[in-house]
Design a protein that fits this description.
Membrane topology: Multi-pass membrane protein
Strand order of the largest sheet: 1-4
Oligomer: single chain
Number of helices: 12
Keywords: Cell membrane, Cobalamin biosynthesis, Membrane, Transmembrane, Transmembrane helix
Distance between the termini: 12 Å
Function: Converts cobyric acid to cobinamide by the addition of aminopropanol on the F carboxylic group.
Number of strands: 4
Structural class: mainly alpha
Helix content: over 70%
GO molecular function: ABC-type vitamin B12 transporter activity; threonine-phosphate decarboxylase activity
Largest sheet: 2 strands, antiparallel
Organism: Devosia ureilytica
Radius of gyration: 20 Å
Number of domains: 1
Length: about 325
Amino acid sequence: MEPLISPLALAIERQLGYPQALVQRIGHPVMWFGKLISFCETRLNTQKRTPAQRKLAGIVALGLLLLSVLIVTVGIRTILSWLPLGWVVEMLLATAFLAQKELGRAVTAVSDALRSSLEAGREAVSHVVGRDPQALDEAGVARAAIETLAESTSDGVVAPWFFLVLFGLPGIALYKAVNTADSMIGHLDDRYRDYGWAAAKFDDVLNWIPARFTAVLVTTACFFVSGASPGRAWAIARRDAPKHDSPNAGWPEAAFAGALNFKLGGPRSYDGELVDLPAFGDGKPALGPSDILLAVLLYRRTLDVLLGVSAVLAVMLLLS
């Protein structure tokens, strides 16, 4: 019954999410990863090291993180394999590494807050983006929310699901560990440029297929969203995704921009520093709360398509 793990994990996590009571009592696996990443970073990424030594230290830290996660998850999976319904427990554990429910809730909250006031919108979007919210006008807040929604559809949902299908609980946990490391230390500033190199590069490798598959899913989902264009979604994704410095981030963002005829991307401010990023799409740049909700609708239909794909794969494996 293991083929049922991925579709059931998607279906259950989308409805229930990760229980807040568990966050308060034991935390979240991503929080545990973060503590280990921070522990290694404060001890290995020291000023006295040369750039080459920092890069090596980053490789060692990533290896320790992945080895720890691998040992724990393989051990859990081995024990569960001895139990009659162990696959059900594995499925429930896997839901912790998906982010469908919380992502949709957080982005919808930005729309609700923005309807109230610009300041409320800035406050709400600060919980989902890393850029400076005070530098954003209404359109900037809306774009930031939609861009985060698009990119997180890939690395928060599709990519974890992809590695769950391939390698079960160890696969989804290892992917999430790498993705967490990339978000924490995979930066290009002086502190992390060398130390975070391994995390950033490995994250790029792991997301190569999921990012492009996300663009395919978004394109397919357009058939179920009034006004969305599948042809434009795929054309803009192919045209504009290569503009991004990341080999992966541009694919879901450009697909959302083309699908909904929005203009996303462009310059943004991080910690007071203006970063010039490429624009995606040729549509309207003056976005607002209703446009965020339209993007959330496209996101939900994308999840529907993903669930359908997962269910078909499960049936094929069960029948083979």
